[in-house]
């Protein structure tokens, strides 16, 4: 089973790993596209820092993010699962993993990225700033850059159960055919439901934690539902590729 997560705008700083080595990342078929996107990002930030701030949508308080991008090739790295922070990753709470649960999580978790396409949880990456909707000079939309290579790279997952918890923008960078998506809704006492927006990340993080750390092998939806329900989640199987996670207000 593979669980795909969205990245986060906020990231930890520093790290103890060697500088970025694209050849060391998972899904080596993405190396050329990663090099193209990374090269365009670094060049923009080195050659035109003010323009880079505007392109990346950064205010004065986040001006340092341009510097991080400019030093992408020389900055220390950290495992992707430790690099990303924010609501989803707080709920995932990877710092509390035992050695055994971390091993299971790292074998199942993947993280979408505007810079790297898709990352395995343990892939070493530096601090960076780049969002799915950014248009880098000379490249056009990141969707047009990533979609062909991501589609090809994930074609080998055709026989795997893939749970795609990425947000819409990151799903569009590289849809995975046959992947199961999860909608999060709140059900009120009168039975009405409302799609969860902001707290969707929190609930997806909790679900990802339960699935990623379980000792059970999940090769199909019924097995996944059993694990999720034992962990206290309410999931409904809407179609072959859609689940609904029901939460309370």
From TrEMBL:
<protein>
    <recommendedName>
        <fullName>Peroxide stress protein YaaA</fullName>
    </recommendedName>
</protein>
<dbReference type="Pfam" id="PF03883">
    <property type="entry name" value="H2O2_YaaD"/>
</dbReference>
<dbReference type="GO" id="GO:0033194">
    <property type="term" value="P:response to hydroperoxide"/>
</dbReference>
<dbReference type="InterPro" id="IPR005583">
    <property type="entry name" value="YaaA"/>
</dbReference>
<dbReference type="GO" id="GO:0005829">
    <property type="term" value="C:cytosol"/>
</dbReference>
């Amino acid at each position: 089973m593979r669980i795909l997560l969205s990245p986060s705008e906020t990231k930890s700083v520093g790290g103890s790993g060697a500088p970025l080595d694209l050849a060391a990342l998972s899904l080596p078929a993405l190396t050329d596209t990663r090099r193209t996107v990374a090269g365009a990002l670094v060049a923009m930030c080195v050659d035109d820092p003010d323009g880079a701030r505007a392109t990346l949508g950064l205010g004065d308080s986040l001006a340092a993010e341009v510097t991080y991008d400019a030093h992408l090739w020389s900055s220390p790295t950290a495992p992707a699962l430790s690099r990303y922070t924010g609501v989803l990753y707080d709920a995932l709470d990877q710092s509390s993993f035992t050695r055994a649960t971390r091993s299971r999580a790292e074998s199942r978790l993947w993280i979408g990225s505007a810079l790297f396409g898709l990352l395995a949880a343990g892939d070493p990456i530096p601090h960076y700033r780049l969002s799915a909707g950014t248009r880098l000079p000379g490249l056009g939309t990141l969707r047009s850059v990533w979609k062909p290579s991501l589609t090809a790279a994930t074609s080998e997952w055709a026989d795997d159960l893939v749970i795609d918890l990425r947000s819409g923008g990151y799903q569009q960078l590289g849809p995975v055919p046959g992947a199961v998506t999860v909608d999060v809704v709140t059900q009120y006492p009168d039975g009405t439901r409302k799609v969860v927006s902001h707290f969707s990340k929190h609930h997806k993080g909790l679900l990802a934690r339960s699935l990623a750390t379980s000792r059970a092998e999940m090769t199909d939806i019924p097995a996944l539902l059993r694990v999720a329900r034992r962990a206290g989640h309410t999931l409904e199987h809407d179609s072959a590729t859609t689940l609904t996670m029901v939460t309370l207000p």
